[in-house]
Amino acid sequence: MDAKQFVEIDGSYLEGGGQALRNALSLSCILGKPVRVVKIRANRPNPGLSRQHLHGLNLLRDITNADVVGNYLLSSTVEFTPGTIVDNTYRVETHTAASITLIYQMALPVLLFAGRSSRLIVCGGTNVDFAPPVEYMQDVLLPNLRHFGASFDLKVQRYGFYPRGQGRCQLDVEPVAKLNPGKLVAFGNIKSVSGVAYCAGRLPVNIAIDMQQSAQREIHRMWPSQKCNIEPIKHSRQKAYYDGAGILMTVNTTADVVLGASALGKKRIDGHLLGLEVSCQLGGYIREKVCVDNYMQDQLIIYMSLAVGRSTMRTGKLTNHTRTAINVAEQMTGVKFDVATEPDGQMLVSCQGLGHLNKLI
Ligand SMILES: Nc1ncnc2c1ncn2[C@@H]1O[C@H](COP(=O)(O)OP(=O)(O)OP(=O)(O)O)[C@@H](O)[C@H]1O
């Protein structure tokens, strides 16, 4: 800390993307600790704040009446001094396909520590590259957060894809008094393998059916007795103005493990290939019997660091996103994460959380 008592976070560390900024600012708001983030997104081809990050930053400024320096496009340094978390209805209009879920990723942990329930309406992209698809947030993040005693209600009013965006979602968050420690260590037995294959705009429903059939076929090939139920959906014009396609698959187990895998259609969409890609990714998780998938890993770190008690997750090889999230959480909260490799190559990530209590309820 310097004379102004800022915790300084190096945004170029390891992954060097937007996630270090998001986690640092969220923890700053929750803990009431001023933070300075330098070298923001230094490892990206377009370093500095992009629109998505700027919208998220300004949203957290509004939620906590923060003093902010450096909140402009392409800024590489931000100083953020939060005030108190204020429950309210907040709206963010990105005017682009900026990821709605990444803006939620920043605000959700903060609103969990508000005094009363809050609503956050965001317009932008619901299913865009390098971000959680909105279905993943509903079907994978939500059940994983329940292990920590947290939850939310997320409604998609309209889907939005790259490049036009124009999706619109509503997130309702009930605050918690504290976060419980998450124990995600036992795999249990598979209860269901399911998913949704969607397309929208001018794209024919056949694309969704191709994704469905190839994904189901592949699961059947790997585990002949395992049922796999994927719903093909063509979104109506009201539900999505423009073209887009993708698939999300999940596996649910008797130990309340929920793993997800997804893919998004690009220019020339081959539904068969997308279905195959996603079922293979999910099949890999099932074979490894991990309890947390590769994307959920980094998203749970912030909750583990704040919980009252010791959280543990059994997962695969750690991603750079996860190592970066651990680094930020350790600096912001002072907790220490332990990472151990199991004989079969799985990783056990654990930490004695800070035990942060919500003083506003
Ligand atoms: N397919 C996916 N499913 C679920 N989560 C995803 C998926 N792709 C990316 N994510 C999550 O989205 C976040 C992306 O963080 P990252 O810092 O790379 O993105 P960003 O803020 O857009 O920054 P940048 O533009 O700097 O890459 C991570 O939490 C990652 O786990």
TrEMBL record:
Gene3D superfamilies attached to this UniProt entry: RNA 3'-terminal phosphate cyclase domain, RNA 3'-terminal phosphate cyclase, insert domain
Known EC number: 6.5.1.4
Record-level Gene Ontology MF annotations: ATP binding; RNA-3'-phosphate cyclase activity
Active site, per annotation: H321 (tele-amp-histidine intermediate)
Protein's GO biological process: negative regulation of axon regeneration; RNA processing
Name of one Pfam family that matches: RTC_insert
Domain RNA 3'-terminal phosphate cyclase: 13-339
UniProt catalytic activity: a 3'-end 3'-phospho-ribonucleotide-RNA + ATP = a 3'-end 2',3'-cyclophospho-ribonucleotide-RNA + AMP + diphosphate
CDD domains the record matches: RNA_Cyclase_Class_II
InterPro entries for this protein: RNA3'-term_phos_cycl_insert, RNA3'_phos_cyclase_dom, RNA3'_phos_cyclase_dom_sf, RNA3'_term_phos_cyc, RNA3'_term_phos_cyc_type_1, RNA3'P_cycl/enolpyr_Trfase_a/b, RPTC_insert
Keyword annotations: ATP-binding, Ligase, Nucleotide-binding
GO cellular component terms, semicolon-separated: nucleus
Residue intervals of the RNA 3'-terminal phosphate cyclase insert domain: 186-286
Binding site for ATP: Q105, Y295, M296, Q297, D298, Q299
Family: Belongs to the RNA 3'-terminal cyclase family. Type 1 subfamily.
NCBIfam families per record: RNA_3prim_cycl
Protein name per UniProt: RNA 3'-terminal phosphate cyclase
Organism in which the protein naturally occurs: Drosophila simulans (Fruit fly)
Gene behind this protein: Dsim\GD16584
